[in-house]
C-alpha cells in the first residue's frame, strides 16, 4: 500500500476529486453529507470554510483505516478520462498526490474518512486540524451513480452551509 500526503487549500468548505479538472457542478448531489458525487468525480465537504486541511491518499490496498476516524462515507464516482485527482477549487490539482483512477476511465468506489470536521465549523484558518483519508478502487460498471452512504448523521448546521454555498 502506498500513502501520499499533502495540504489542500479549502475555499467555500469543499475540495474536489476531479477528472481532468472538470467541475460538472450542475450535477452535484449534496444529499450525502461528506461526499457530493457529480456526473464526473465528486466534491468533499470540509468543516472549515477557508484554509488548509491534511489529505492522505491510499493506493494499492483494500480499504481499511489507520487510526480513529470520526466519519466515513462511500460513493461510486465516474472518471471519463481516467485522471481523477485531489484538487483545490482555487489552486487546482495537487500534483504531489497521485492520480487516483489507476485503472483508467470507468467507475470507481470512493471512500473518504475524516476527523476534525466539527472542531471549527465554517472557520477561516491558515492551518486546520482536519484530516482526510481518500481511497479509490475500480468498481463494477453501472449506469448511474450509486447513492452515497455515510456512517454519521447529517450535521444540523449542514443545511445552512449548503444554502450559503448555493447562494455563492
Biggest beta-sheet profile: 6 strands, mixed
**Structural Rg:** 14 Å
Structural class: mainly beta
Net shape: globular
H and E string: EEEEEEEEEEEH
Topology, please?
Elements: E1 2-10, E2 14-19, E3 35-37, E4 42-45, E5 50-59, E6 71-79, E7 84-88, E8 92-93, E9 106-115, E10 124-138, E11 149-150, H1 158-167
Parallel strand pairs: 5-10
Antiparallel strand pairs: 1-5, 2-4, 2-7, 3-4, 6-9, 6-11, 7-8, 9-10
Description:
The chain is mostly beta strands and 168 residues long. 6% of the residues lie in helices and 45% in strands. It has one helix spanning 158-167, and strands spanning 2-10, 14-19, 35-37, 42-45, 50-59, 71-79, 84-88, 92-93, 106-115, 124-138, 149-150. Strand 7 and strand 8 (92-93) form a beta hairpin. It is globular and about 35 Å long. The chain starts with a strand and ends with a helix.
Main attributes of the structure:
5-stranded antiparallel sheet, mainly beta, 6-stranded mixed sheet, single chain, 11 strands
Gist?
The protein is mainly β and 168 residues long.
